[in-house]
Amino acid sequence: MRKTPHVFLLVILGLAATSPAVAQITMHSTPPPSVTAENEAWYVTNEPVVFAGNNYYPAGPSIHFLSNEMVLSGFFRGVPLYTRTTIEPYSVVFVPVAGGLMRPFERRRSGDLAGTTGSSVPSLRVEIPTAFSPAPRIQAAGPPFVETSPIVSESPAEPPSVEPESGPLSDSGGRARALRSFIFLSLREAMRTPRIRENSNVQ
Question: The pTM is what?
Fold first, then answer.
């Protein structure tokens, strides 16, 4: 009879060890936004919202704030931006407006997202790439710009041309040619004269 309490204790410990553990999960909902954008100039003029390096444009009707799905993801000019955990990341951001409503701003389906639809039908036009679509321009960073003065090649100055003066003494080349012709003719006549005399003596 003394072993009965020990056996009973061992049975209780065994049942406690083999029973499944029950984990307690606590869900924390997101508090509603306290700042709205209906009076902001960029919201009134429908300017795009910049979030995570991309532009988001107004698209679709406003929806009510969903505290169990929407989380605070960033700010744009002092206004909080929310995203939904149940849709494709970086596809739509929600801007709080009056009345507990959230205005969706959607990213264009272009570039790497061209031709895709995401978690829902996009409100903006989907760009479908074709063979005639211009290829994206890829440009490397240019070298540093340094302003320099233009280089002007300096050629040696040509001597000024001097026009010959008109007159009888200005044609020195003509005088030289005339003098050479006169000397040539004189020498030829001098060489012919002895031959003529010899011929006359022989006769």
Answer: 0.47
